[in-house]
Amino acid sequence: MASIEIYTWSHCPYCIRAKALLDRKGAAYTEIDVLHDSVRKAEMEQRAGRTSVPQIFIDGRHIGGCDDLHALDAKGGLDPLLGA
C-alpha cells in the first residue's frame, strides 16, 4: 500500500476535491493541515517548491496539487502508484 501525504487547509475546496478522489480510490492518507502550523507549512514549501495547497506526495514522490492529481488519474497513472 502506498504512503500518501497531503498538505491541506481545512476549508480549501481543492483539498476537499483531492481527498475525495483518494477516498473514492480507497487510498489511506495522512493529512497535514498547515493553516495554523507555520513549521509544517514551511516543510511543505521546501518539499514541494510551492506555496499553495493541497500538495500531495505518494511514496515520497511529489505529485503536485489537486489538478495534477486528477490529471494523473485521467491518464491512468494514479492507480499504479496507489498499488491498485
UniProtKB/TrEMBL annotation:
- According to the entry, every stretch annotated as the Glutaredoxin domain falls at 4-63
- GO (cellular component) term, any one: cytoplasm
A single Gene Ontology MF term assigned here is: glutathione disulfide oxidoreductase activity
UniProt record, GO biological process: cell redox homeostasis; cellular response to oxidative stress
Q: Which UniProt keywords apply?
A: Cytoplasm, Disulfide bond, Electron transport, Redox-active center, Transport
Q: Domain of life, per the record?
A: Bacteria
Recorded hits in Gene3D superfamilies, A to Z, give:
Glutaredoxin
PANTHER family under this entry?
Answer: GLUTAREDOXIN 2, GLUTAREDOXIN-1-RELATED
What family is reported? Belongs to the glutaredoxin family.
Reported function: Has a glutathione-disulfide oxidoreductase activity in the presence of NADPH and glutathione reductase. Reduces low molecular weight disulfides and proteins.
Q: What name does UniProt use for this protein?
A: Glutaredoxin
Origin species, per record, is Novispirillum itersonii (Aquaspirillum itersonii)
